[in-house]
Structure formats: C-alpha cells, structure tokens
Amino acid sequence: MPLPDRMQFNCPVKLICGRRALEHIPYELATRNACRPLLLSDENAHRENRSRAFVDALRETDHTLGLVEALPAKASREIVSELAAIYRDRDHDALVVMGAGPLMDMAKILNLVVSTGQDDPGAVTSDMAGMASRLKPMVLIAPAAASAYEASGRASIHGADLRAVGLMPDLVCIDERTLGAPGQEALMATGITALALGAETVMARPKNPLGDIYGVNAVQMAVAALHAVERLPDAVTPRMHLAGAAVMAGCALADRAPGRMERIARRLAATGRTSYSEALGILLPAAADFGERHWDWSPADLLRALVGLDRAASTPPAQQAMSTASALKTLVNDLFCHTAGRIPRVLDDAGFTREELDSVAASVETEDRAIAPGAIARLFQAAWGVVPDPARQ
Amino acid sequence: MSMPVYFEYGCSVEIVAGHDVLESIPDILDRLGAKRPLIVTDKGVSGAGLVDVLTAAIGARIAIGSIEDSVPVDSSIETVTDLAGAYRQQACDALIAVGGGSVLDTAKGINILVSEESDDLKAFCGSGTLNRPLRPLLAVPTTSGTGSETTLAAVIKDQARHRKLTFGSPFLIPNAAVLDSRMTLTLPPAITAATAMDAMTHAVEAYTCLAKNPLSDVAALTAIKLISGHLPRVMDTPEDPEGRLALALAATIAGMAFGNSLVGMVHCIGHALGAVCGVPHGNCMAMLLPYGLEYNFHRNGRLTADILAALADDDTYARTPREDRADAVIRRIRELNAMLHEACEGRHPRFLNEVRNARGEALVPKEVLPQIARAALDDGMVLFNPEDLDYDDFLMILEHAWDGRPLDRSLVRRGV
C-alpha cells in the first residue's frame, strides 16, 4: 500500500448503532456536560412521530428536553435566529437533530450561532476563522433516507458553503426506531450517494488509509442495502445499512473539499435533467474507469468492498481495476432493472443529448484547471453510453 | 454484510502523519488557541536526541514553556504533580507528550490537574469524573505499538499504596497525534519488532474477538496489511522512512481498532505475564498471539482465515484452500516471529523459555506459570474472548507457550 508523504484526518464523530442506541444518548450527553438538549425535527420525522422514541428514551433520566418539530426543509435566517433565541432563553446546552439534509445544515449553523454567542447567522457564516474550535454538543439521530452529508463537516445554507471539522456532530445515533419510513426512491438515492462518495474517497489520490476506513464501510453498507432493493422500504436491516452508509460517507468526507466526481455530478444536476444522486450513479462506473487512466485513481482498491474478499482476492491484480468498473456497471444496471428504468444507467437514460453535455463539460473544465481540455467530454461520452474508443483514451 | 446488534465507534483524535509533520505542530496549537506548550518526555527519548528534532522543527515558530524529561517507566502521581507544578510555573497553556505510553499517561494526568486547577489527582480516578474539555494535548509517539495516542484512558501509579489508578474520559483523548517518521528512525531492532507485534496483536484480536464491529474490522485489516508489508523491510533497513511511517500509522490505526472493539485472551495472559515477570508487553503479545488464534480456532477460524489476505496478499489467500487459511495465518505469524528472532539476534523471544533479562537470566521460570494463570483470570478482557477460559485453560496455554509447542487443540474444552 503506497502512502503519501503527508496525511491528515480528523473525524470527531462517535457512532452508536443498533438496538436501544437511543437510550445511550443521555449518557453520552452527560459525559459532554449536557443535560438540557433541544430536539429539532423535520417534517418527515414529525409526521412519523419519530421523536416519541427519543422522548421515551429520556423518560427515566434527569435530562430536560425541548422540542421544535416539523421545521421546514429550507430554513430562513429568521428561523435560525428564532431557534437560537429558544436555545438561549430555555438554557439548552446541546442540539439533537432528527432529520436529513437541509435540517442538519441549519442545525450546524445554529450550533455555530449558539456556541460563538454571535447573534447574526450571516456574520457567523462569513467568519469561519472566528469559529470556536469546540462547539456545543450536537447529536444526529440518523434517518435511513439522507443526503449523506449530515455527518460531514460541510454545510450549505443561505448560499454559503462552509467546511470545518467543528461542524461535524459529536455523536451519531442509528436506531431502528428512528430510521423513518421513506419510499424506495429516497432510500435508493441515499444508497447511491453514499456508495459514490465512499467510492471516490477510496479510489482517489492521495491515498488516506484513515479516511478509507469510513469510505470502505460506506461502500460495503450501501452495496448491502442496494442488493436488497426489493425489500428496501420495509425491512429493517437494509435501512440500517443505508443510514450507516450515509453516516460513513459523511465521516469519510469530514471537512475535505468536494472531490472531482462530486463536482461534476453537481454540474450535471444543475442542468435540472437529473438528480444529484442519479448523476453520481451514472458517473461512478465511468469515472472508475476514466479516473484510473487520467486521474491516478485506484479502482482496484475498491473491489473488495464491492464484491467481497473471496471474489476480490481471486481476481488477478491486473484485472482488479477493470473488475471494479464492471461491478459498478452491473450494480447500476441492476438498479435500472429493479426500478423499471426509474434509476438511469447512463446519461442517455436521463435524457441528455450529447450536444448539451459539451457545455456542461466546458463549465467543469473552466472550474477545475487541472483537468485536461476535452477530458470531461470524453468522460461524458463513456457515461452517456458510448463504448469508449481506445484510440481517444 | 452483518452488523452487530449494538456497537460504538469513535476516535476524535486529529491524526497528522508524514515525514515532516512535526513542523505542523505550531499551526495545530494555534488552531487550539495555545501558544506556550510544556513538552513532556522521558530521558530515553531526550537522550536519543528526539526532543532536539522536535524543537528544531517547531522552536522558531513557538515559545516552548519548558521541556521536562523526568517521566519514569511507570508514571506516578508524584511525577504528575511535580510536572503540573512546572506547567503552572512556566505559564504553559498546552502539553506535547513525546514518547510512549507512560509519557502520554503522565501528560494526561498533568492535563487533569492543570485544567481542573487541582493538586489531587486521585479525586479524578475512575470514569465520569471529568465533564469539560481539558487543555490542548498533542501526542508525538516515539514507538509504533501501543496506540495509546488514540485512547481515552490513563494508568498512573500510586506508589504509596502500590497500586495503579485508572482514569477514563473522552476528554483525556489527545487533540492530535503527530506521527513523524523521524521520531522512530532510530528505534532499536528489538523494540521495533516488539512494538510492531504489539500493534499486530491489537489488530488481530480486534478483528477476531467478540466486540468487533464493521469500522474496527476495516481498521484492523488495514493495520495488519501495513505491518506485514513493512515490518520485514524495516528490520532489514531500519532507516527506511517509508516503512517507519507505515508502522507508526499501523500502530495508530490498530489503536483505533482495539480501542473500539477491545481485545481477548492474548492480552489477558500478556497483562498477567507482564505483571508477574516483568516481560515487556510487546514480547508477550508476539509470543502469545499464535496461541490465542489456536485456542479460539473452533470459534473464529473463519475470521482468522480472512486475515490471510492482509497478512500475505490476495494471491496467497486465493491459492490457499479455504480450510487451510486459518492455519496458514497462524503459521505465518510464527514465521514472522522467527524472522524477528533472527533479525534481533535472539532478543525477540519466540517462547516463554527464551525470555531473558539483560544479564541473560530466565525471566519466566516454569514454576511461576500457575501464578500467571491465576492473574490472567482477573483480566476483564476475558469477557471478549470467543471461547471461555478458566485457570486450567490458561495454565495449559502457558505450558505450551513456555515450551514453544503449537497448541494441542484437542485439549481445548468447548464452552456452550
């Protein structure tokens, strides 16, 4: 295993996962000197009455819980300010977040506001350097359907993209009682996103064995869940795996800058022709192949997480990268089949024309000067469904 | 993939690893709001010139409050109290622990006293006694084995009462571990071998014992691969910085693995052997690891077999018949010990009857094996071993390990 000359990794998240995990939260809060948590939940969690399980978990303790439920997906600055006022006025000392994506983004900003004593969320987001290195305790109760960024050190709110280890939750709890009951599409989007983010962590250089611990787990858990796609909405185990995969992917990202595939997928999603998770799913197999040739990626490092030890070990080293790309293609093709075509395999399935992809490719190359001119167009051709022309590789 | 019914995993230490990362310490301290660190170390480390390497790397960019190298082999309350006084006298605001487990435990103890503004360390003994962040603490390991830079515990001796006090809190975890290849380049071969096998045992027991979880599994296999891939090279070329960095990283990753999934009977016997006979911990681990795998074979042979790919390579794993893989792992660990024995000119013992002190006297006379077996029974890690053990089982294993005979697996009694 070649190591880079320098590595850095920081993941302050403690994961508690499994049966009656919720009941461990009061102890974990107490060890962080907190006993007055404020619970924030989004509309999905509120509709499914998920907070009930957490309230029950606190019943036999001396913790005092505040609840603000059914928060809207997009939080305004006013809502952040109102929540900060509640946090301070009621003397809360920790945040517990029950929800996904935008709610967690908002909670990260709220934690900055209440921890730094800054009243204006805008001022906090523009002055990350002034952020306290130790924020107030924050707990994420992870749902099965998530953006996969919840546990990361990233937050997007009010047009600002923030990155800092301090934004990561102190504790993540995965408990089957609070996974929620989302539909199959939301669950598959979670699995594909976690798979892609974890896979990029493992394949991309420079190598970081510390981040790979989380990246490999994100891939293993996502693959296990996606193979159970028929049972996704109903069975507990695949939903536990999805919640775990999303958390692992977030931990693997930590406060790292977005990866190349992530950025390209964002550009594709910005066209409005496909969702972010679909874009990642389409790009991943092509990027594994393309990345090995052009970006010094190591797809072979991913094979074991995808197909298991026995199959990976029995694959000759020279074939491992190709087998990785092949396994990813098979997985995405299977998802296409299982969903009767709702999950696209290639850009063609998502309705892109080859011509419009050229402008997206150009915008990506403008953003990332390290990419050779024309490279993204070639990646898109492979992801569009064209068999690559070896002469052009 | 299967998930345990319940598990926990976390390692909040920021890890910075590389060939010239000591230079990043001022930036890390700055981020933590500290400007004047106390450097805590021992005479062995300072005598080897490692503190000079550190001060040359950071001295121009930060005001070092004081350098204290009086940490003994076993940290004590008196040492901690004295050094806390030095911290206060020099108006320090952070700690840098440069050394092995005892130095880091001492620094953790000092951190308790200076952060809690107390002189009574015993008042913070046990767990749950700390409830707020302490002063910034950075760990700079100078051996590649214990993994203590990732743990939340400290063991400090109360010499007046002849007992060891244990402190446990998430707030004791260092803020950062700085793994620089320059700090282990001069580690002598026998210590390199023993500490690497200590880390190897952490990883193998983390993967094969009862409290394993998906994250500790990946960490454990990563550590095993790094050690098996680099240890022979480092024994051959001790000044190889790539290999030294890999071993340092492996020890930290193995620490993350066993810190979250605990260990088993190899550590039970190893702790007892260390307490009764004073055998260095790494040597205990190296000698006993094959016996732990043999004893638990009927319970976790499938997991032991998995290790073969990390210990050797994928091709060896694939070419070895499924039913032979676990045996191949045990055989390879014995071969690794034999190679280390030869590379260290006999100073890496393979069996208990080979353990000698500096004067060449036997450290483990056969008569003390019952005493070791009794002490092993009291070790809490026995709860996480796949197969049950009682006094007779421990003694039977010790007798095999003393002679250097592979374990007669027909003697292993199978619990329910």
Brief rundown of the structure:
The complex is a heterodimer of chains A (about 400) and B (about 425). Chain A has about 400 residues and is of the alpha/beta class. Chain A is built from 16 helices and eight strands.
Q: What report would you give on this structure?
A:
Chain A is α/β, with parallel strands linked by helices and 393 residues long. Chain A folds into two domains: 14-178, Rossmann fold (3-Layer(aba) Sandwich), CATH 3.40.50; 267-393, no CATH class. Chain A contains 16 helices and eight strands. Chain A has helices at residues 25-31, 43-47, 51-58, 77-89, 102-116, 121-125, 184-203, 209-226, 236-253, 260-270, 276-294, 303-307, 309-313, 317-338, 354-367, 375-384; strands spanning 6-18, 37-42, 66-71, 94-98, 138-141, 154-157, 160-163, 171-174. A six-stranded parallel beta sheet of chain A has the order 1-8-5-4-2-3, with helices on both faces. In chain A, helix 4 (77-89) packs across helix 5 (102-116), helix 7 (184-203) runs antiparallel to helix 8 (209-226) and helix 10 (260-270) packs across helix 15. Helix content of chain B is 49%, strand content 12%. In chain B, the strands form two sheets. In chain B, strands 1-9-6-4-2-3 form a six-stranded parallel beta sheet, with helices on both faces. A three-stranded mixed beta sheet of chain B has the order 5-8-7. In chain B, a hairpin with a 4-residue loop joins strand 7 and strand 8. Chain B is globular. The model of chain B has no long low-confidence stretch (mean pLDDT 95). Chains A and B meet through strand 1, helix 8, helix 9 and helix 13 of A and strand 1, helix 7, helix 8 and helix 12 of B. Strand 1 of chain A pairs antiparallel with strand 1 of chain B.
